[in-house]
Design goal:
Number of domains: 2
Bound molecules: flavin-adenine dinucleotide
Strand order of the largest sheet: 5-6-4-14-15-16-13-17
CATH architecture of the largest domain: 3-Layer(bba) Sandwich
Helix content: 25-40%
Mean pLDDT: 96
């Protein structure tokens, strides 16, 4: 078998790349391979949110372009993937944090992020969002932000690409021939596909697939879980933005609960817990579903399935959410039936993706999408297709290559900043 390009991995990154190559750039003979059904490993586990609110120019540029493309695809598909724009609302009970939020808003606005609304005090915040806690002293509502169905976006792109000639093959890429320092073929489940171009879009397995072309990628994977539950008391309005509590917090357990948790060795739930407990409504006006997330495990490991289990996660998230939305407290007596899933954030140390040439001529990588892969996929897929077909590149392209780690000023910059902007 021969192909013009083989994309390894049919998550949102690989599908977006295939869509760009075949539909937008008219490339022929593109093959997409994956041992799993498309979009079923990580890309259907996400909380599916997007924002252009990032603390650095390359990410603002990438996300603005991605949102432009998402809006275009929503128009072309009759909004098949339910793109909404309720925004991200960052809330705090700490005046210093609120001041820092306001200062950062100036920086992000200068970079091209936003628009946003800033709430300088709790009363103004609660005038718009009356269900929020009395302890909130203000907040920031990022407005070019919202959520959509990543699975349906991927399904639409895949259908368009297949109609334009994309071939989807079930199988795992197990070896890559790059003799003479250029790509010659990929072996998929024992069958060889001759090709000059191979694209590594293997999600949590990007490191493993990169080894097939002799490159050791500087990425690692973190476990991230989410929980969905029915808000049958309808505490949270359907038009609510995603609301993020930006403060650390201490959960309020009874004496008996504390001793039970001590016995279980669950100090993580007894000590001060990290910031960023958050939720968003899921589904349309008739839906009662809420999605909640709070990554307090901070568990870095080799990607393996099933994911580590935390039976107390739904309760911990619900308790955390009552800090920002006290009206949820009745659920602590009768926790609604939770639906838990999750996956890996595969990331670089400074939490920027890799969309780049990789090793031998004809080898490419689109990965390290951490917690922003579904929002970034449209523009990242476009960028990867531009690299493959030799088109003019956007200004942010140079920020997503591996050679950034050879630049001492870049290394100094990333040492100086923390991983802000990530949820
Ligand atoms: C709980 C959670 C919440 C999240 N929330 C958000 C959010 O709100 N917004 C956002 O933008 N992002 C979010 N993300 C991140 C987002 O889901 C990921 O960044 C994105 O799905 C990664 O897509 P991918 O295509 O790179 O990887 P995947 O979807 O994992 O796809 C990779 C594919 O490669 C295949 N593969 C692996 N090895 C091979 C091989 N050798 N040959 C062929 N195929 C191979 C796999 O089978 C898989 O299908 C979240 C993630 C999690 C876990």
């Amino acid at each position: 078998m021969k192909a013009g390009a083989v994309v390894c991995g049919a998550g949102i990154a690989g599908v977006a790349t295939a869509f760009q190559l075949v539909v937008e750039q008219g490339m022929r003979d593109v093959v997409l391979v994956d041992p799993l059904p498309p979009l079923t490993l990580t890309s259907d586990k996400s909380s599916e949110c997007y924002r252009n609110w990032w603390p650095n120019a390359p990410m603002v540029g990438l996300m603005n372009r991605s949102i432009d493309l998402l809006e275009d695809y929503a128009h072309r598909s009759g909004n098949a993937f339910h793109l909404t724009r309720h925004g991200y609302l960052y809330v705090t009970a700490d005046r210093d944090r609120l001041s820092a939020m306001e200062a950062e808003a100036g920086l992000i606005t200068d970079l091209g992020g936003g628009p946003h609304d800033f709430y300088a005090d709790g009363d103004r915040l609660r005038a718009h969002f009356p269900f929020l806690t009395e302890s909130a002293v203000g907040g920031l509502h990022a407005r070019r932000a919202g959520w959509f169905s990543a699975q349906q976006l991927g399904a639409w792109m895949l259908a368009e690409a297949k109609a334009a000639g994309l071939e989807l093959i079930k199988g795992e890429a197990t070896s890559i021939d790059s003799s003479g320092d250029r790509i010659r073929s990929v072996t998929v489940d024992g069958a060889t596909i001759e090709t000059p171009v191979v694209i590594n879009a293997a999600g949590p397995m990007v490191k493993k697939v990169a080894r097939l072309v002799g490159v050791d990628l500087p990425v690692y994977s973190e476990v991230h879980i989410k929980v969905a539950f029915r808000d049958h008391l309808r505490v949270i309005p359907r038009a609510s933005p995603m609301v993020i509590w930006t403060d650390p917090q201490q959960l309020d357990w009874s004496k008996e609960e504390r001793s039970g948790l001590e016995e279980m060795g669950r100090d993580d739930l007894l000590n001060e817990m990290p910031p960023m407990c958050h939720y968003r409504p899921e589904g349309g006006v008739g839906s009662e579903w809420i999605v909640g997330l709070w990554e307090y495990h901070r568990l870095i490991q080799e990607p393996v399935w099933p994911l580590p289990d935390d039976s107390l996660y739904p309760e911990a998230v619900m308790r955390g959410l009552t800090t920002l939305v006290p009206g949820l407290r009745p659920y602590l007596d009768h926790l609604p039936q939770p639906v838990v899933d999750g996956g890996y954030y595969t990331k670089t140390r400074e939490n920027r993706p890799l969309v780049t040439r990789l090793g031998p001529a004809g080898s490419y990588l689109i990965g390290a999408f951490s917690g922003f892969g579904v929002m970034a996929a449209a523009a990242a897929g476009e960028l990867l297709a531009q690299l493959v077909t030799g088109r003019e590149l956007p200004v942010y392209a140079r920020s997503f290559g591996l050679d950034r780690y050879q630049d001492p000023s870049y290394l100094a910059e990333i040492d100086a900043v923390s991983n802000t902007g990530q949820i």
